[in-house]
Amino acid sequence: MAWGSVASVTDAPLPIAFARHLARDRRRSAHTVRAYQATAERLLAFLRLHWGGPVAAGDLSRLSQADLRAFLAARRETGLGNASTARELSAVRALMAFAGAPPPRVSGPRVKKGVPRPIAPAEAVALAEEVSEDAREPWIGARDWAVLLLLYGAGLRIGEAMALTGAALPVGDTLRVTGKRAKMRVVPLLPAVRDAIQAYAAACPYHLSGDAPLFRGAKGGPLSPAIIRRSVRAARVRLGLSDRTTPHALRHSFATHLLGRGADLRALQELLGHASLASTQIYTAVDAAHLLDVYRNAHPRA
């Protein structure tokens, strides 16, 4: 079935037909299918009250900017953050494309610009999910998910992730990483990161030999960092995240979040592979800026 057409879908309710289309024709993950179906159900329920009557697929063509903004405003009142609101908007656009209705031009929320700030944990996961789910093949989605989890969950530079070879398999509790100036370090791996790498290795159609690159491009060659950067750039636009949301920002977030949870600077220096402690100390300033921002937003007299 072609994207943007409901003609060949059964007479199932629109959210269910939409979900079937996402799973069968767009090969979206089960998580995305559930989330997008829930958005479709919420939008139709909102419009039934907003317009005062039942809503069919053909009715979506009269959805206006004001209608869509009202729906998003209602969702924000439930406590939805910027990244989640942007994904809600993305789901609405996908639903309207499925129904053959042009979506109103409404910009998604953006993260405020200012001093460098870490990406919130929910935003980091949302970014990785968005990149993975937009991949053209399931194994490529698994690859991108594993790469981005290595950057955020283990603090790797993107070049360090690309330099990994098949010798890293099967992955254990730690990973040997070659950093700048060929300096070796050992980083611990969270279970979610280990599972992501193993899932990618199992899905990859190319043989991952010991001395060959672990992460492969679509044609089997070494994966270029530019591919990951391009995918992150497109995903952050869809999610309404700041243009500072880059693959390297995931490494910054790893460091800042560890420091905020009480990690020792020397230990953090080792995890990041910094030659000098001065390079690691920048995260104390970033963390202080984040705390000041929280204080200003939360304190009644700030």
List the helices and strands and how they pair.
Layout: H1 14-24, H2 30-51, H3 65-76, H4 82-98, H5 121-133, H6 138-154, H7 158-162, E1 174-178, E2 184-188, H8 191-203, H9 225-239, H10 247-260, H11 265-272, H12 277-298
Antiparallel strand pairs: 1-2
What do these coordinates show?
This protein is mostly helical. The protein has helices at residues 14-24, 30-51, 65-76, 82-98, 121-133, 138-154, 158-162, 191-203, 225-239, 247-260, 265-272, 277-298, and strands at residues 174-178, 184-188. Helix content is 56%, strand content 3%. Strands 1-2 form a two-stranded antiparallel ribbon. The chain is elongated.
Named CATH topology of the largest domain:
hpI Integrase, Chain A
Give the end-to-end Cα distance, rounded to a whole number of Å.
55 Å
Helix content: 55-70%
Query: Which second-level CATH architecture of the largest domain applies?
Result: Orthogonal Bundle
Low-confidence stretches are 1-10, 111-116
- Note the beta-strand portion: under 5%
Condensed summary:
This protein is mostly helical and 302 residues long. The protein has twelve helices and two strands, in the order αααααααββααααα. β1 and β2 form a beta hairpin.
What are the main properties of this structure?
302 residues; mainly alpha; hpI Integrase, Chain A; 2 domains; two-stranded antiparallel ribbon; 12 helices; elongated; disordered N terminus
